[in-house]
Amino acid sequence: MNIETKHKKIIEIVQDKLTCSAHNLDHVFRVYNLCLLLAKYEKDVDLEILIPAALLHDIARVEESQDRTGKIDHAALGGILAEDILTNLEYEEDKIEKIKHCIITHRFRTGNEPNSIEAKILFDSDKLDIIGASGIARTFMLAGQFGQRLTVNESFNDYLKSNTVENGRLKDVSKHTPFIEYEVKFKKIPDKLYTQKAKEIGKERLGFMEIYFNRLKLEMDGMK
User: Fold this and answer.
1) Fold of 3-220
2) Taking Cα atoms as reference points, which of 34, 192, 50 lies closest to residue 117?
3) How far is CA 176 from its chain centroid?
4) pLDDT digit of tens for each residue in the chain (224 aa)?
5) Which of the 8 DSSP states describes residue 147?
6) Which of 16, 75, 99, 213 is the most interior residue, by most CB within 10 Å?
């Protein structure tokens, strides 16, 4: 089985698996395209590792979204699911391990740092897709999916105590809001990216988000 056929098989599996509107195949392809863009600015990037990792990085998202305990980490579980898929597609063992590393380390809260250039590119690409115009769109897609309000009636600190666990995971995503997501996550993203090109893109995207959320707050307060 050649590499293109393997990629097509992976896409078919991912398309069937991902049913969440904000983490569907569209998101996967945006991350994939960002990975290819960032790879052009780095040296010695192995696309045979990066491409399947990008396509499979959210393979366990549905399981995490449906978990009310906050215990399932889609990155960790995704590594397990990806190993089975890649084994069935006859990937070599050393490549499977490198792809798994990219998947396991692609999110903030795993406690695992990406240590390969492919893993760093995947991390950066995934984070870039949650900021900027696409990030705003995805945030409100999730808000609608889970029945979120725009604001909460409790203070910011009280909310964090009542609806997050030690690793920052949400207990109940329906109680979350786009504004809180912007404050606790989006604002921090550019400083946590690894590649220089991603940092440049991230700062520009965050600037757009700041303008949007500031305007939205004024409109919600009846000031505009």
Assistant:
1) Hypothetical protein af1432 (1.10.3210)
2) 50
3) 17
4) 889 999 999 999 888 877 665 567 888 999 999 999 999 999 999 999 999 999 999 887 766 666 666 677 777 778 888 899 999 999 999 999 999 999 989 887 657 889 999 999 999 999 999 999 999 998 998 888 888 888 877 777 777 787 777 666 777 778 888 888 898 889 999 999 999 999 999 999 999 999 999 999 899 888 88
5) T
6) 99
